[in-house]
Amino acid sequence: MIAPSILSADFAHLADEAQAVTGADWLHIDVMDAHFVPNLTIGLPVVQSLLKVTEIPLDCHLMIEDPGRWAPTYAEAGAYNVTFHVEAADDPIAVARDIRAAGAKAGLSVKPDTPIEPYLEILREFDTLLVMSVEPGFGGQSFIPRVLAKARTVRNLVDSGELQLLVEIDGGINADTIEAAAEAGVDCFVAGSAVYNTADPAATVQTLRGQAAAVRTH
Ligand code: DX5
Ligand code: ZN
User: Radius of gyration over alpha carbons of the chain, in Å?
Assistant: First the structure.
């Protein structure tokens, strides 16, 4: 699965930018609050507007403090998947349950230096694990390969039936890095600059998906 990140799109033309990636599996929405990360992007009103203009399921990545307060509102609005950061949550299980009760899939995200081992048990409460492969906050950064060990660990638990969730990766994914991520067992690839900074974003989505699929089938 490929999830283009609109962080690299033209914010003055978001409806067109959603249309430009027709064929994408999810549309990734980076919500930043200038507290959890040193950047400020978009929030609920923009997500509500996007829901009216695209059929692509919205994958909301909340890089915010106090996710327990805000995450369920994205689910209620109609987001398909709502992901928050474990580093920001006092009670991640309660937040996941609230997201699911509000009708969305629940995702947990870990920053590059956050180990996954302490959270393997609670992943039972989640539908997606979002492994950050850059420090959250900005698009266009370089991929950090060492995070792939976390993807591999969770992939193995999914393959052995101990966990049931999608492994998603976010940050620095492009034609040069997607194969290594696919090799590590990632299911869903977020790509911002690699998709939107090309002349034909929809074609780039297909190319990236083809690269990942080729790795996963051999
Ligand atoms: C970074 C965001 C990413 C970002 C990825 O904090 O979570 O989703 O848009 O951008 P690229 O693909 O350019 O690294
Ligand atoms: Zn993101």
Answer: 16
